[in-house]
Structure formats: structure tokens, C-alpha cells
Design goal:
By secondary structure, this protein is mainly beta. It contains two helices and eight strands, in the order ββαββββββα. The strands form two sheets. The protein has a four-stranded antiparallel sheet. Strand 1 and strand 2 form a beta hairpin. The longest helix is centred in the N-terminal third of the chain and has 7 residues. The chain is elongated, with a radius of gyration of 19 Å. Bound molecules: zinc ion (ZN). The site of zinc ion has 5 residues, from loops.
Length: about 160
């Protein structure tokens, strides 16, 4: 079966940046997604369309087509008093924060400047070109229940 809309695909992948650093990987076949619902980066979704179990491919996606360029206006200076007192704030720390567009997203502590915390609301992968080595592990029809819920059930998916 080929990867197409209304199928569930399982992929193994290694994600590297331009310097060959491994940013993320999954090699146990438990990364699954419902095809055609925007659960993975559009460029990757398009590249694996039509592939089937056993196929391997390399996909490079430029930053602008992945998580976008890093935007300077998404870097904010926040008084340390805005953070809970019992949290030891360190550069590199990540937490969930509401961005100016109202969406909750991962923010990263960039640095600490006196009693001001410099917070970066850019996606951790923003500004990076992404290089995926992908292996298609499995492709199956989505169940009607999965299509109705808009997500995968069972291994690698939702349990409820
Ligand atoms: Zn469900």
C-alpha cells in the first residue's frame, strides 16, 4: 500500500541539521501519523507520498519551509519576577508559554541578564535546514474511527 490520504504511515527517521548533528530520531517504528492531516511538516509529508513499506529516502527541507526563520521579535525580555519563585531558571530551559498570537508553544530561556530573563519564543527548530533520512516501516488504511478523530489509535498513537 502506498502512502496517501486516509492512510496511517509508520516511519523511522533520523533528523540532522546542516552540520550533521542529530536533532531527533525514531528507529522503533512507533512514529505514526494520519496522512493528509498536517501532523508532520508539509515538505516531508509531500516527499513520502506514494512511498511504501521498505522504501528509503533522504529529504532536505529548507528552514523557511519547515519551522521558519528565527524571528527577532519573538525574543522577549521578561522580568525574573514573572517566573515562579521555586524554579531555577537556566539558559536552555524550555517551558510552555503563550505567544503573542495566543497559541501555546515551547519557549526557550536564551540567557539571563541581571534580573531579566531573555526568552526565545521561536520554535527550537526555527532557522534550521532539516535533513531527514526516512524509512517507511508500514502503511495501512486508517480506520473510520481514526478518520473521525483525526489521529492515529493504537501503537504510536492515542489510547483512549
Ligand atoms: Zn481518537
Amino acid at each position: 500500500m502506498q502512502i496517501k490520504k486516509n492512510t496511517v504511515a509508520s516511519l523511522n527517521y533520523v533528523l540532522k541539521d546542516d552540520e550533521d548533528n542529530v536533532l531527533d530520531q525514531s528507529d522503533s517504528g512507533d512514529f505514526t501519523y494520519l496522512v493528509g492531516t498536517g501532523q508532520i511538516i508539509p515538505g516531508l509529508e509531500k516527499a513520502v507520498e506514494g512511498k511504501q513499506a521498505g522504501d528509503q529516502l533522504n529529504v532536505s527541507i529548507m528552514a523557511v519551509d519547515a519551522y521558519g526563520e528565527r524571528a527577532l521579535e519573538k525574543i522577549q525580555r521578561v522580568p525574573q519576577s514573572m517566573f515562579p519563585q521555586d524554579v531555577d531558571i537556566k539558559p536552555g530551559m524550555q517551558f510552555e508559554a503563550q505567544a503573542s498570537d495566543g497559541n501555546v508553544a515551547i519557549a526557550t530561556v536564551d540567557s539571563i541578564d541581571g534580573d531579566v530573563v531573555v526568552v526565545d519564543h521561536n520554535h527550537p527548530l526555527a532557522g534550521k535546514n532539516l535533513h531527514f533520512e526516512v524509512e517507511v516501516v508500514d502503511v495501512r488504511e486508517a480506520s473510520s474511527e481514526e478518520l473521525e478523530h483525526g489521529h492515529v489509535h493504537g501503537p504510536g498513537g492515542h489510547h483512549h
